[in-house]
Each structure stands twice: as C-alpha cells, then as structure tokens.
Amino acid sequence: YYRAIAKGIFKGSVSDLPIRERLEQTYEKDPGSLFERLRSVDPDYAEIVHINNKKRLVRALEIFESTGKTPSQHFIGQETNPTFVLDLFPILLCMRKELLNDRIDKRTKQMFESGWIDEVNTLLEKQSEMDTFFPALDSIGYKQIHRYIKGEMNEHDLKEDITLKTRQFFRRQVKWFRKEKIEFSIDMSQLDNGKVSGIISDIYNYAILKD
Q1: Which helix (H) or strand (E) holds 93?
Q2: Pick from 120, 67, 58: which is nearest to 50 by CA?
Q3: Spatial distance between the Cα atoms of 162 and 142, rounded to a whole number of angstroms
Q4: Whole-angstrom Cα distance, residue 102 to residue 116?
Q5: Closest to 89 (Cα-Cα) out of 5, 176, 191, 8
Q6: What is the C-alpha to C-alpha distance for residues 45 and 28, in angstroms, rounded to an integer?
Q7: d(CA 56, CA 46)
Q8: According to the model, what pLDDT value does residue 80 have?
Q9: Same CATH topology for 2-80 and 91-210?
C-alpha cells in the first residue's frame, strides 16, 4: 500500500486469472515448489514473502509469468519511472524489538480474551453458508485458529505459533521499510503517543527549513 501511494501501481498489477488459478492449484499440492521457484527468479522478493502467505506468493509468480518481469524488477521501475508523483513527507515509526515483542504477546492475549476463537467459528459458519472464501481466514492468527478448531493443534501450540508468526511478520516489515530508504524516523519506544504529532511537526518544519 505504501509503495502504491508513494510511487504508483506498476503495470504488472494487471491480473491473469488462468495463470493465478493454475498457481493456486500448485500451491495446494506443493507450496514449497512455488516458494523455491520464486526464490530462484526473485530472491530479494522471496525474502519478504513467507511460504504460508499463499496470496502474495501466487501473486508474485503471476506477475512474473504474465509480464516476464519479477516483482523486484517492477519495483525498480517504480523508482526510476513512477506512474505518478505525490508530494509526500513519509516518517517511519519504529520501536525496539523487545518492546514490540511484548506488545505482540499482550495483544495476542487480549484478542483471545475478547473471543477470537468464537469469531473464527462464526466466519467459518458464514463461509460455509455462503459457499465462498474469506481472505481473512488465510491471515496470521485466523489460519492457526482454524487448525485448532479442526483439532490439528492444542491451545498452547496455537498461541505460541500465532506469537511466533506475528514476530516474523514484524521482522519482514522492518526489513522491507529499510529498503524504502525513508529519511526520517521516530523511535516510539519511550514516547507517549500524545507527543508524536508534535514531534512530526518539528521534523517537518526542520526539513522545510533545511531545503
């Protein structure tokens, strides 16, 4: 989403349904083969796509097959030939790893206490009634709870796996944003949220004066 706003949507964003359906069928049989293929044609992009992220993995190979270029090649094109230019002033909000991990643990606990398992049960029932697929059920947490409901893991392993997958997702996000080379960042580790807007204003004014 950030790249789409900052640099526009590259031409590879067109869809090719037959290719996607074939790749999805392959994924259901052998997700590892698709991941290895992506790693061979686009190792940089493979670093930020998890093998369990069916949507992004299939989409990456769909782009490659339909355009002849990898996602990374399209992103490089965005750098040199943006589809449109907006006057943006991006600031990256950061937090120390140990503090964010603690927040992830607390947030996961809160979601279970708020009825996360019941929510997934409701989604599964509606999905069956409507004979459709809810993409949310393929995301972190929902996928693991679905497995728990089917009896494929116990409650302890369920919570541990969700926490682990969320932390891994966070690390990939950090790595991705580092590649975006955003000039200004704010360490939120010891900041009160109410002070952030003032700091952002100060950074913006500094940048304006510097230019």
Answers
A1: strand 91-94
A2: 58
A3: 9
A4: 19
A5: 5
A6: 21
A7: 10
A8: 59
A9: no
Reported as half-sphere exposure (CB side, CA atoms, 13 A), residue 35 has a value of: 14
Residues in the chain, overall count: 211
Closest by alpha carbon to 47, among 137, 56, 98? 56
Q: What are phi and psi of 90, to 5 degrees?
A: -75, 140
Residue 152's pLDDT is 96
Report helix, strand or coil for 91.
Answer: strand
Q: What is the dihedral of CA 89, 93, 94, 95, to 10 degrees?
A: 160
- CATH T-level fold of 2-80: Histone, subunit A (1.10.20)
DSSP-assigned states of every residue in 112-152? HHTTHHHHHHHHHHHHHHHT---GGGGSTTHHHHHHHHTTS
Domain 91-210 has CATH 2.60.120.920: no
Instruction: Give the Å distances, CA to CA, from 106 to 69, 99, 146, 156.
Output: 41, 11, 21, 15
Q: How high is the mean pLDDT in each 10-residue block of the chain (211 residues)?
A: 75 79 95 95 87 88 93 76 71 93 96 97 89 80 95 96 94 86 90 88 87 65
Hunting for tokens 């293929």 — which residue is that?
A: 37
Strands 184-187 and 91-94: parallel
Sequence spans of domains, the chain:
2-80, 91-210
Q: What is the pLDDT of residue 199?
A: 93
Say if CB 110 and CB 201 are below 8 A apart: no
pLDDT at site 47: 83
